[in-house]
Specification:
This protein has 78 residues and is of the alpha+beta class. It is built from 1 helix and 4 strands; from the N terminus they run αββββ.
Length: 78
């Protein structure tokens, strides 16, 4: 009986540890809470870059490295 309880404790420990690891990996897959929104195109900028409008009204495009480059808000046609 005592050995059974020790095995169950070990089982639950591994189970909770696995759930924690899965939850953390899923959050990292989503970006860890950073910029997971999807944006609708709002026009184009130099060299046919698609412009997007952010949640706070900023107008930007993604550069070749995948980073946001902000431009004047008037450039967005949303």
């Amino acid at each position: 009986m005592v050995q059974y309880l020790g095995t169950m404790k070990r089982f639950y420990y591994i189970l909770f540890l696995s759930i924690g690891i899965l939850a953390c990996s899923k959050q990292n897959e989503l970006g860890g809470g950073t910029d997971t929104e999807t944006y609708t195109p709002c026009g184009t900028y130099k060299s046919d870059q698609k412009l997007y409008q952010g949640s706070k009204g900023g107008c930007f495009y993604y550069n070749s490295k995948g980073n946001k480059e902000y431009v004047e808000r008037s450039a967005c046609k949303c």
